[in-house]
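Quick note —
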Amino acid sequence: MDGQLRTASADLRALRRTFAAFATGVTVLTVGGSRPHGMTANSFTSVSLDPPLVLVCVDRTAVMHQRVLDAGSFAVSVLAAGQHQVARHFADRRRPLGLAEFDGIACEAGPATGAPLIGGALAGFECVLRHMYDGGDHSIVVGELLSMRRADGDDPLLFLDGRFRQVLAAEVTR
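Predicted structure written out below.
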């Protein structure tokens, strides 16, 4: 921020650039049912272990916003380092919607919700929608865990400074 304190509303481009300094994991949020849908999301985190809760933020104008409300459940796939094309696919607003949206994407219906879980992902979570909170131009979607899976190995896909990245650092020891 060039050593100056700026207000968030003063310069949207500077705000995006500053937020981009924080590396995040990359996920695909999905809903199942007769109108399945997917969306790339990097605002995902655990909230609580007891009960097991997660949150993901969804733009209020995104197709996914109403689909999550309608479905009442959702799945989150944590993408592996080599899955940047999957992330790009689900971020592309020009992709077909519905079942065609998943053509060519390895996925399987989650056992608890039927929402697609992305094949090759590091982890998958299925959740029932518990709360939706106002988060400005986004909604903060909180889900309670119904099922989970964790794959062995591989590094996560990261997003930093507007680009997909991989973990390349050596492990830090004490």
